[in-house]
Amino acid sequence: MMKHKTFSFLLTMLMSMVACVASAHDFEVDGIYYNITSSTDFTVSVTFSGDRPSSWKEYTGSVVIPETVTYSGKTYSVTEIGYQAFYGCSGLTSVTIPSSVTSISSGAFWGCSGLISVTIPNSVTSIGDEAFTVCSGLTSVTIPNSVTSIGSSAFNGCSGLTSVTIPNSVTSIGSSAFCRCSGLTSITISNGLASIGNYVFYGCNGLTTFTIPESVTTIGVSAFYGCSSLTSVTIPNSVTSIGSSAFSGCSSLTSVSISNSVTSIGSYAFSSCSDLTSVTISNSVTNIGQYAFADCIGLRSVTSCIDIPFNLDSSVFTYSNKSYNPNTIYYIATLYVPTGRRTAYSRAEGWNLFTSIQELDLTDVEGLQLDEHVSSENWLRLDGTKVPGKPIQSGIYLHNGKKIIIK
User: Fold this and answer.
1) The pTM is what?
2) Which CATH class is domain 210-363?
3) Strand partners for 127
């Protein structure tokens, strides 16, 4: 009797497992699997066939998803690429998404390393978390004007991705969205984005230039961490805070001008920017975190427009042109401060570690905006170099006997 009960139990469990597998999708047409998302609106999402996506990987080659599909005498509209629908389908090379689709769900194309091209139609409004994570064969992505949000890690690890264009419609980019896209050299982000989230461009070591839209107010933690090829970045007046480690490890960055809207610079924000030679800090800054400019071994000029210096942690410029005497911390970079404020800086904690503090008249035309085509022939940087015929760059210049800060 006990054996009979045990056999019955095992048989019931087996039948339940079979039922689970069978119910993983609602129906299949022409090799594509679907789940019914609404029986009243007659909508479906594309899905996988088995009990879990990683066990099947049935999609290979070029897949064309239709706008509508007919099953049991009813016609359904395909409105969604479902959760992990193409997960791990490394043999998938291209996919055509119809204009009926409005969302690409989380993990939809996770690990599709053979995917070379994908066209996202104007109907799509959201791209979910990890939607294209580790699609290493993907080379370019154009996101349509209909998309308003890009999920966390959406393109994380797409090492073959070289260019991305993000339209005005996108207001939110999730954390790590383009993290470790090591081949990314060009990215265009239009106005509309409110913030650059944590780790968004972490490890994008092929990125050389980046212009932050004027709509952005915050730059998140480690947003550009390890972007070792980044030579210039423009921080607009809309930005109020720069997160911890935001530009840490950007070893090719040569100069930074902190806009006069920024109030907070996070810890390690520019640490290990070894090619950084000059920094300009605006009067709006009220807090600079620990190690913000640590290990910036090439730093020669720090200009502070802050009228009343607040105390700094001694680590802020640690090892930035630091004496190699392990028992003494001081900085050989020249600190430029507003006229009449040298004594205040020499007494303020952290600032007093600079061995050379010089006063400049920084009130003349601070924050002057110049047309990029203005000739720099008669302009002279404080380090004595001229750059005739080239646009004025951020920094401190002498012109007609005046010291001018260009931002």
Assistant:
1) 0.80
2) alpha beta
3) 104, 150
